[in-house]
């Protein structure tokens, strides 16, 4: 409970920092006034414009952190992450293809298309990872995901390059970021994120059973295939919805669950809420950092999280106990 309280306080502090710091620093008095609805002064207007961006960063970070924890639980793979397993790039490829060749323009259509692409990519990578001797080992899944992600990224480039009318916007979206957020965009994706959160959090007990191994889980009455499919569905919904609105942001779902296990252990009833809170905190911190270090421009959060997550990924791979959770 102390760690839970600490996580909430850290997230609240980072949300306030997101309103106060950026290209223009805003006095704390104007931040509080903006939270009350005021936008009369320049500082209050700046803080007011940052509120939707902060809310979106919290939601996307929570979604990616929770999805990563669920994916690691479903596959019993410490290297599982929406970016590493190619799920985010699969969602990106589906959206780009639908926009370029089928005229997709509806925001809701973006979300449904991204979720479909994320699901197909997850099934494809898991199928490839299970081929050969030993089944779906963590290393085979990571290699299959990395290769698939690179292939999907190349296909995205191949689709976008000939289309000058959409190339500029998609290049920015492909990096991954929360700039240009609005309550309208957030409201469109909120029902999908809410459904994903509920499905994942309700899967906590099932994931605890799956952690014992399929045979033992079945022996204590768990319907292994159903439990794995439902939990994976929740993760895919979160990944697809997050990618549709913010682009393919990587490594949040890898870094956060491992950090949470160090704090609260492996019980998914605690791990999943903590993963959501710390994911929200990490993405909010990355967004603030990207705005502060490159003034007056900014660095998108997808770049910041990659700088954090790549060394973390190498460290996990080099650990001795990387075969399974």
UniProtKB/TrEMBL annotation:
A GO term, aspect molecular function: transmembrane transporter activity
InterPro entries: ABC_BtuC-like (IPR037294), ABC_transptr_permease_BtuC (IPR000522)
Domain of life per record: Bacteria
GO BP field: siderophore-iron import into cell
UniProt cross-references to CDD domains, sorted A to Z: TM_ABC_iron-siderophores_like
GO CC annotation, single: plasma membrane
A matching Pfam family: FecCD
Keyword set, alphabetical order: Cell membrane, Membrane, Transmembrane, Transmembrane helix, Transport
Residue ranges crossing the lipid bilayer per the database entry: 51-71, 83-104, 110-129, 141-161, 192-213, 225-250, 270-289, 301-318
Subcellular location: Cell membrane
Mode of membrane association: Multi-pass membrane protein
Primary localisation category: membrane
Similarity annotation: Belongs to the binding-protein-dependent transport system permease family. FecCD subfamily.
Name the record gives this protein: Iron ABC transporter permease
